[in-house]
Amino acid sequence: MHVIFKVIRQEPGAAPKVQDYHLEAEPSNTILECINRIKWEQDGTLAFRKNCRNTICGSCTMRINGRSALACKENIGSELARLEQAVPFGEKVDGNTSVAIPVITLAPLGNMPVIKDLVVDMKGFWDNLKAVDPYVSTAARQVPEREFLQTPEERSRLNQTGNCIMCGACYSECNAREVNPTFVGPHALAKAYRMVADSRDQTTESRFEKYNHGTAGVWGCTRCYHCNSVCPMEVAPMEQISKIKSEILERKNAQSSRSIRHRKVLIELVKKGGWINEQDFGLKVVGNSFRDLQGVVSLVPLGVRMIAKRKFPLSFEPSAGAATVRSLIESVKSLDKSQQVTMTSETPEPTGG
Asked: Are residues 132 and 233 in the same domain?
């Protein structure tokens, strides 16, 4: 089949441009196989990264039709099926004949500076990973007289996050990273959970303090789910971030920070009324129940605008299902606690590892 590859190309210090490459390919051909052929047969100046060709190293990640993915994993057939665009639009062939030709657009990863074409500078990516201390604590790394011992249950907690190949797909699609340059990124926080879940690590509490630091840590995540949707290894970074948040919330009270107060007040109000009373929410979170006078004053302009537009209700009516919602929240909390107790009391005998 005839395929047009539209590649976003860029030289250092120059504006990006789109270059078209026409290629005869099979539906089973991977995107990486196709751009290899373009480089070997048509344009040796095209720059991109590659290595293993087997979804192991993560080197060939790029944006394929607008989403970050491994070029060695995606093939022509699956990509066109995903977009439902086997016949996207007409292209001129030989200058005069208009035929429908599949089009695949390739672009460099987002949230990283472009070095050349599809190659990006990943220094920030690696620096942010380093910032979460992605290794077990020094004491735990001391070589013991015998091997480290972990139960099957303890080891299983590391399986999902251990599958991360550091491809950069989640970092590329992270909306929070795009608007907040201090946010370390989903890849780093997924690895951070890998550390706090490791039974060999002895710095768990200090890690939670570090990951709780403003919007640079877990509270910078906007829960957009993009990282989960593009991860080729099903690491689900956002889920790992949520797990760290839950651990921090168990350890902190509402006075610790606005981020923590935001979560605790939200649950409190939903339990109380079935949905969020936004007036109470603002006063309790931003104004800290009138403890933060500066916060209360900051809400005044918003309150005035709400009153002017008649969007400031004088009373709040709980939802009809408030009792059901409250029961569900309590049931989930009870289930979480019972599972923790079960894991602690029914730990199997250690095995070598």
From this structure: yes
Q: Which of 115, 146, 162 is the last residue of a domain?
A: 115
User: Which CATH number is 22's domain given?
Assistant: 3.10.20.30
In a domain, 298, yes or no: yes
Could you give the CA distance from residue 341 to residue 346 in angstroms, rounded to a whole number? 8
User: Is position 352 within any domain?
Assistant: no
pLDDT of residue 84: 72
269 and 293 part of one domain: yes
Q: Do 99 and 187 have their domain in common?
A: no
Sign of CA dihedral 278, 283, 288, 294: positive
Structural tokens at position 263: 């979560």
* Tens-digit pLDDT profile for residues 111-132: 999 999 999 999 999 999 999 9
Confidence band of 142 (pLDDT split at 50, 70, 90)? low
Q: Does the residue 347 lie in any domain?
A: no
The three state secondary structure string of the chain is CEEEEEEEECCCCCCCEEEEEEEECCCCCEHHHHHHHHHHHHCCCCCCCCCCCCCCCCCCEEEECCEEEECCCCEHHHHHHHHCCCCCCEEEECCCEEEECCEEEEECCCCCCEEECCEECCHHHHHHHHHCCCCCCCHHHCCCCCCCEECHHHHHCCHHHHCCCCCCHHHHHCHHHHHCCCCCCHHHHHHHHHHHCCCCCCCHHHHHHHHCCHHHCHHHCCCCCHHHHHCCCCCCHHHHHHHHHHHHHHHCCCCCCHHHHHHHHHHHHHHHHCCCCHHHHHHHHCCCCCCCHHHHHHHHHHHHHHHHCCCCCCCCCCCCCHHHHHHHHHHHHHHHHHHHHHHHHCCCCCEEC
187, 220, 251 — which closes off a domain?
251
Q: Which domain holds residue 242?
A: 122-251
Residue at 178 is within a domain? yes
| Residue whose pair of structure tokens reads 């129940």 in the numeric block | 289
pTM: 0.83
Confidence tier at 342 by pLDDT (50, 70, 90): low
